[in-house]
Amino acid sequence: MSVPKKVPILPFVSRASRPRIAGKMPATRPKMGTQKVPHTFSEPLKTTFKTFLIVVVFSIAFGYIEAAVVVYLRQIFHPNGFIFPMTVFGTGPLFKRFLLTEIGREAATIVLTFTGSWLSGHNRQQRFAYFMIIFAVWDIFYYVWLKVLIDWPASVMDWDILFLIPVMWASPVLYPVLISITLIGFAVVILYLCSYGRPIRATLPDWLGFSASGLIVVVSFCLPGLHITEQDFASYFYRPLFAAGYLLGFVIFLKCLLKSK
Prior knowledge:
The protein is mostly helical.
């Protein structure tokens, strides 16, 4: 008669009831969706560069869409030519409907820019950088595509209507392009530092100062935008005001960059 072998009990004991070894805790899996990307997130520079290229291609295509829409709008609103000072805009129901549609389209482009930057970045600074890239490349290639499609502008000093929210913005083409080139430079620096886990050090006063610089630039665009039907519309674009906002933002960024070394 054979004696039955003893079956080890330990493998059948539940994991929770096993004694813990001193100094060690049972391993637990992190719950899906609970892991947060740290503020000092880093990734290989090659990965950042690939994402950067994808965002640039998206922005160039976005610029073409914008330019194509403006080609149609100019035929509707400016059949006799896009010339400053502008003629008095219409006040009929059809014109108001077109104007509201255009304002809604511009708001939608900002939402798309935010969405694209949010999906492209992994933390706050990367997303802010990609927002600047999308906005800036879109703006520059908007003028590139207009030049290709309708041979406009003739020069960087030609005036343009830049935006309609909350009021009309206007300025020579040179100034928004200058802002866009600067934003691309800022964004490239931020992405480069983020790839090495060295984010830009910006305090609340720095962010407030950067916001103030942007507001000053916007005001410098809005002032002539309110007078584009007048003969002296260009006199309302105060270049010193624009320069003050531009230089303030540039100096604050350099200050933050030096603090990050």
